[in-house]
Design goal:
Layout: E1 3-6, E2 16-22, E3 28-34, H1 37-45, H2 55-75, E4 81-83, E5 90-92, H3 96-105, E6 110-113
Parallel strand pairs: 4-5
Antiparallel strand pairs: 1-3, 2-3, 2-6
């Protein structure tokens, strides 16, 4: 499994932790743990097979995720555009890592390294 959903007080199974499902008050309702950027995108999409798909499928899914995220951000008063080049207020869909970085920069998700004993 490329990612897992974390429950309160659960220790992350993988090295990356992502908080997502942001409320208007700024709280996150979900957290997931994954082994890679692709795994975290899969978690956002609720698509465990995402990492195993071809490049075209992954790009279409990143575009879908960015479209939904931009619409949600617009409802909260944060206008974002979708592009494959970096910029201010841009959701960059060029790769999994650039999309995660731009979602993180827009405060739509929060990515952390898992705490280790």
């Amino acid at each position: 499994m490329p990612y897992c959903v974390l429950h309160p007080n659960e220790v992350a199974a993988f090295p990356l932790v992502m908080l997502h499902g942001r409320t208007p008050e700024g709280h996150f309702t979900r957290s997931s743990s994954g082994t890679s950027d692709a795994a975290l995108i899969g978690a956002l999409l609720d698509d465990p097979a995402y990492e195993d798909e071809d490049d075209e499928y992954m790009m279409r899914q990143r575009m879908h995720l960015a479209t939904v995220s931009a619409a949600e951000a617009a409802l909260a008063g944060l206008p974002l555009i979708i592009s494959d080049v970096p910029g201010l207020s841009v959701l960059n869909i060029r790769s999994d890592s650039t999309l995660l970085a731009s979602l993180n920069e827009a405060h739509l998700i929060e990515i952390r390294e898992a705490a280790r004993d």
